[in-house]
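Q: What changes when PMT is included in the input?
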Amino acid sequence: MDPSFTAYYVAELPLQSSIRNFLERQRRFQRNLAVVSSGGTTVPLEKHTVRFLDNFSTGRRGAASAEYFLESEYAVVFLYREGSLRPLQRRLAKLVTDPVTVLVSEGHIKEGVASFRVTADAQAALVQYERALKEERVLEVPFCTVYEYAQYLELIASASAVFERNAILYMAAAVSDFYLRFEDFKSHKRTSDSALVLKLSCTPKLLDLLRELWAPQAFVVAFKLETSMETLHERAQLTASRSGAHIMVANLLHERHHRVWILENGRMEEIECPESDTEIEKRIVEAVIASHRCYLDADR
Ligand code: PMT
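A: The predicted holo structure follows.
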């Protein structure tokens, strides 16, 4: 990897030993593992960061998918952008932002107090997540910058290699394609006395390193985001063959939460879920798990 990129790496990542202990525990219990990356990465322009480049990702795809992997008894490492949506929390956050979608009125007011219960869906998610926590089947790892993301991904993917075919690497994070070379990185706030001209370099294709180096036997699910239908399928195919990903989920920015295409073995299948219907992540995870089972069976 380019030394100007890895120059940002820290000597020891804060959750290094928790990650190793977590993975060892899952191995002892012979659980299948899903590593879910989620949310957008930042590219800071200064060390004492005042300004940074960011992207649109909310983390919904990753957080919802992590819940469905947990529901299917997978152990989950959730590598997520600090402040983006997290499993379960994304539902409870609606108690503040959109309460009528999670609360149902009991229909009566007693001594001036109205009572509400959470919807059956939210209750089921709460019970599910509480069980996963009790079983120590989920570990959340926050990142902010593209460098932290890359360093954690390398650590987690390499430590998952012992799971061989039993690990799914589900790469839903929106990774910055460009970064600022370490030699151009400023320590303190840039002045605004003149126009700011930045030359950004290409971020290493981390996806390609998963099968090439870090976890060659893992089942890799990648995502391809475009803003135009004209380029989507072709670019998804190119990225899939370059990286060796087993499944490529292609989506368009503006309709990503109700329509995707799943590309597998050269075949493209469309999944569409209207907003009010089943969450699209449930359908994606079901398709991924079904293909992962075939991948495991092919080895027996
Ligand atoms: O978070 P939401 O708001 O719910 O939105 C979900 C999503 C649109 C972010 C998600 O569905 C999605 O498409 N994620 C991938 C976005 C992206 O980075 O696309 P890409 O075409 O630039 O990258 C393709 C794949 O390579 C991705 O799996 C990405 O994680 C990976 N990548 C990209 C660049 C890079 N240098 N290294 C990588 O590993």
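Observations recorded in class: The chain has one domain: 3-10+17-86+120-297.
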